[in-house]
Amino acid sequence: MHEGWMDMGWVGVLWWLLIAVFVVLVVLALRRSTTAGPSSPEEILKSRYARGEIDREQYQRMLEELRR
Asked: Which residues of the chain have pLDDT under 50?
């Protein structure tokens, strides 16, 4: 009796391909989520204001500076 991945048949090969595709999709999703974030200076300023790092006056002043 032969044992090994070559003797699994098409069903076994398809399962391995399905697992490989799933792993690739998970890696791509994780990579995208770690690189996603505010990209423009205005978006960064908005997120700082939303987190409470700066007050309304600072936000408006900095926003005016960015838009000049």
From this structure: 1
